[in-house]
Amino acid sequence: MITLSLIGIGTGNVDHVTLAAVHALNEAEVILLPRKGEAKSDLIDLRRVLCEQLLNDTASTRIVEFDLPTRDAERQYLNAVDEWHNAIASVWAELMDKHLPGGGRVGMLVWGDPSLYDSSLRIAKRLTDSGRAVEVKVVPGITSLQVLTAEHKIPLNALAEPIQITTGRRLRERGWPEDAATVAVMLDSGGAFTTLPQDDTYIWWGAYLGMDKQCLIKGSLSEVSDEIIQRRAALRETHGWIMDIYLLAKQPLI
After folding, report:
1. How far apart are alpha carbons 27 and 106 in whole angstroms?
2. CA atoms of 248 and 204, how far apart (whole Å)
3. How far apart are the first and last CA of the chain?
4. In angstroms, rounded to a whole number, what is the distance separating the alpha carbons of residues 114 and 46?
5. I want to staple 7 with a disulfide (CB 3.0 to 4.6 A). Which of 3, 139, 198, 227 is the partner?
């Protein structure tokens, strides 16, 4: 039996890692760290630092790095993602067989929380569906959405109003979600908010949340939309990658 712990680590800031996550890391016999290519080398560097800082000196945990399969960007999105997840599940299975042939405890460090726009739970289900003896455990983590609202010092929702969490692609295709007073947007390839009315929409934007290169911008879209687009492009050029998120509302939230 393999026990696979999906450990939410927040945004890479060691101060955002919960005690439950620290315990799970130290209980693991093997921790799998994915490499996502040179452009995103910062991400595995942060995972390495977290392991160095959070693993006890007496821990016998082995760190195993592996190259994450890439998604075929030319194929239809959902089909490409399905094949991509299958490929990742196969890599996980091979690594478990190699490093824990008799069973044991494996840890995976998941950005934010495994429940929010992360596919680790779906990939893990492929292992159990295939008949493998794998028990999945989840350790919740602080999400980028929580860090965004904390850094901007705002509540997530307007008083007594609903909120919808969506993606940049959905926002471009469908516009403002019906009945949502506040909209949180993740996985935006850049500038989906420019498709909305600019004069009566407010935005709270953040990139690299929790990291030393964190960047925040807020205001009405009519005032800061261009600034965000330009800043985002400059940051991506500087660092080779970007992770950002934003909150939209029809009125100030506080």
Report:
1. 9
2. 7
3. 50
4. 18
5. 139
pLDDT at position 38, please?
67
Give the angle subtended at the CA of 211 by the CAs of 54 and 33, to the nearest 5°. 50
Show me where the domains of the chain are located.
2-139, 144-249
CATH H-level, domain 2-139: superfamily? Tetrapyrrole methylase, N-terminal domain (3.40.1010.10)
Ranges under pLDDT 70 in the chain = 38-40
Q: Report the candidate in 72, 89, 155 with the shortest Cα–Cα distance to residue 128.
A: 89
pLDDT at 207: 97
- Residue 39: the pLDDT is 58
pLDDT score at 198: 84
Q: Within 13 Å and on the Cβ side, how many CA atoms surround 67? A: 5
For residue 221, how many other CB atoms are within 10 A of its CB? 19
The angle, 0 to 180 degrees and rounded to 10, between the axes of the packed helices 77-99 and 120-129 is: 70
Nearest residue to 116 (alpha-carbon basis) of 190, 166, 188, 68? 166
